């Protein structure tokens, strides 16, 4: 018989796959757990019980899904945006933004069923939003209660390549309201709202402006790719016209800018397959009034679809992937995000199509030193031909990297120098990172040791950098999973969080106290027999001496009272209660209130939850080899704890457990039990002989708990 006292002094490998119970040879095995629910591993090793979620407000309409989007102007000015069915609301400093006593709200074009397809990119006070069924929009903040949501009016929209077919088009005029007639049936009703461009080669049709030349009013001259019309008669001066709007003088003759070889109109009504009505946005060339093959269709429209992804990269606004052009990227001119006028100058707009043998529908764009592109079939990078140069219309290089494919509608996360993305089936989180040895990007599977954690598939991602570096990833079944993540320390630890409802959307923003990030979530719950959707956020570990370890909870802080009101959001629910730091018997909310059996000044009320850790089968060795598969007996256990309150249980399973009582003989009975830090006494084990025993730890009361280490004494009986 072998006697051993093994120690599990780290839990930062998190919850491991059930299929790894035979892999005691892995280093991660010694730091991992069979179960980690409502605990999370810290990077340096201990497992900490998560704080509770604080209730903020019910969404506008709980019968419809909503989505959260972060808006971070600075660490002091951050908002959480609730986008619901045709509306938008805003949250700041832990509460909803009010106007006149009611939630401030603006309208939105998106239905609740369309929210999953939104992508967004922020620049200062503006968020650009893309959706495959809508033209790009921008949400702009003018003030805390002054926001606008408008379709982007491009200075010059993106267009397809110029027509190469025999189809001609004729405009009835070059300005104002016009009709456009095609030589064959070309138009459909879905063209309403789209653009059509007409072009001409101005150098072959008009003389060039030269100095000292006599011109008459109405004469046309071109210079530097632009066409100008003289508005006066005289001899040209010494300053060539170079303006691109309005009228300027060359010193003696005034010149009106007409166009740069092209102009475009927006379709306003569909008449037939050969005719539409339109409004000229940018003056058309004179040649447009005669049948011409030099026309191009707008890249985006109801007929052709709109881009599904958007981001900023190298001071350009990039869009990617429409229904018609699923592999195409469109980039604005440098510094002018709403101008997509193509050219060959370094700062001109550009578009580029990924050419591969597979269909690579662009799902997301993520900027770093290069522009990472996630498609349905693989991952690519976009850069200049020389990676040290900026991207221009003439040096674009797109390089295929990996071939995993990406899940639709899940935005990637940029964490340090890595990009985390969800693979196409939704069940693998991959780390897209540059590998110097292969001089390429690789994408290792981040839940390879916990493949079960994704179960029904991930639906969203958010990263909480402070205080614990956790990637939050709710699943399709509503379970909130998390991954404690620090690549430099080789820490990848998964955990599950049961908040008593289904988590549907998550975002993180800087906390209004400025000391950490805060996780906001939409939680779908059943309360008093009805389905509700609540905005909640994960509280801090400890706020002063206040512990907040209830879900969907609230805090009363004021004069001593015995009745706590304002609990309508938990009507009919049994709630856990903490009164001035002491655990109070549970209560059931009736008419939005509960009655205490003693007065309290600081009262925390919410849904109780249990935090559970179950170790992997113990492996402490035996006289003739390993302990696995042999009869073992845990005789006693010492737990090393940090700031842990009452309610801690231990045993071989969740049904066979003893409670550890931290109260000491010197503790006053009319005061809360101090949080305990240190080693427990030697605790007798409540279990019997087992094959490959495991240790189960539970914390059941609304108080904090941090498990630093487990030190059992084990006897192993050899076969």
Describe this structure in words.
By secondary structure, the protein is mainly beta. Helix content is 1%, strand content 47%. The chain contains 2 helices and 62 strands. Strands 1, 4, 5, 55, 58, 59, 60 and 62 form an 8-stranded antiparallel sheet that branches. Strand 36 and strand 37 (379-384) form a beta hairpin.
Features:
62 strands, 719 residues, mainly beta, six-stranded mixed beta sheet, elongated, eight-stranded antiparallel beta sheet
Summarize the structure.
This protein has 719 residues and is mainly beta. It contains two helices and 62 strands.
The biggest beta sheet is recorded as: 8 strands, antiparallel
Can you count the beta strands? 62
Q: Return the average pLDDT rounded to an integer.
A: 94
| Global Rg | 32 Å
Q: Distance between termini?
A: 10 Å
Low-confidence stretches: none
Which term fits the overall shape?
A: elongated
- Helix-strand makeup class: mainly beta
